[in-house]
Amino acid sequence: MARLKFLLAFFALIVCAAGVAGAWFYWKKFAQPELVVNRHISGKGEVLERPDLGRRHFEAALALIKEGELVSARDRLLYLMQYFPESATWPEARRIVGEVNMDLLLSKIPIPGKAEHTVKRGDALVTIARRSETTIDYIMRANGKISEFIFPDEVLTVYPLHFRAEIDLGKKKLTVLDGDAFFKEYDIVDVNLPADLKAPVATSVSERVAWHGDRPVDFTHPEYMNCSKWIRTGKIGLFIRQSEGPSGASGESRPYGVMVANEDLEELYTILRVSSKVDLVK
Asked: What is the DSSP letter of 234?
């Protein structure tokens, strides 16, 4: 009987030893290499942060920007945004993508959709903009014009503006999308909407208005480029406006709308045209 107990104890010891050996083998073969790959270990054995795998793409994109390779830099940053959302460089990559997109849109650099229109006798900016599905403001900014005058045989850059705007009240961001693709993001400075206007709301731009002094003006006005502007949607009380003061302002004079920085409104006024879709989300 004693011999049987000894054999059972010996067998149990072998099983335990095999388990320990198996655990050690798993640790050395699989677990430890995984930790080494995914974590930095300090000299004292302390676990530090995970390596930022998106940073090399970010730095490569900055190098491409310095070389003037805007399209390649933008595409590298979009890759970072898609596959490395945990990267500390992600917010700055998103900001730079927006700036590069706007630079590409307003420059003479060829991008898909951008075309040239040769002015013919009888042409006017308003008809060129309508036929090209763009805005007068885009034509003026992309071609460096400060007045409405155009001349026969003048070559103008045009681009069909099919952007849509998504207003996220929770994040206080206004994002412009080209279809489903990210184009640029803007900070919302202030919000003053009617109490009964609740997200989600799907609407579109119904009017774009420029003001000089106390009256509306159009692009033929000599001060048009310096006018204050706002964008009205088809939903009562949902405007996109320039920020006119501190967010704490109150009173009946405070206008309804979503307020952005003045320079941001100028860009939005340039790329959003009547009929552009606008979504209000939580």
From this structure: S
Cis omega before residue 200 (within 30°)? yes
What pTM, to 2 d.p., does this model score? 0.78
What is the mean pLDDT of the segment spanning 66-73?
95
The phi, psi pair for 253, rounded to 5°, reads -75, -15
The alpha carbon of residue 100 and the mean position of all alpha carbons in its chain are separated, in whole angstroms, by 11
Q: Kindly list the structural domains of the chain, giving each domain's residue range(s) and its CATH number in brackets, ordered by start.
A: 55-106 (no CATH), 115-158 (3.10.350.10), 165-178+188-281 (2.40.440.10)
- One DSSP character per residue, 141-173 reads HHTT-SSS---TT-EEEE----EEEEEETTTTE
Secondary structure class of 181 (helix, strand, coil): strand
For residue range 228-268, list pLDDT tens digits in order. Answer: 899 999 999 999 999 875 444 444 578 999 999 999 999 99
Categorize the per-residue pLDDT at 148 as very low, low, confident or very high, splitting at 50, 70 and 90: confident
Where b means 16+ CB within 10 Å and e means fewer, 205-224 reads: beebebeeeeeeeebebeeb
Q: Which pLDDT score, from 0 to 100, does residue 214 have?
A: 85
- Tell me the H-state helices in 84-211: 90-106, 125-131, 136-142
Compute the distance between CA of residue 203 and CA of residue 191 in angstroms, rounded to an integer: 18
DSSP state of 28: I
- pLDDT (0 to 100) of residue 257: 96
| Cα(176)–Cα(101) distance, integer angstroms | 11
Contacts of 240 (CB under 8 A, 6+ apart): 165, 167, 174, 230, 231, 233, 257, 258, 260, 265, 268, 272, 278
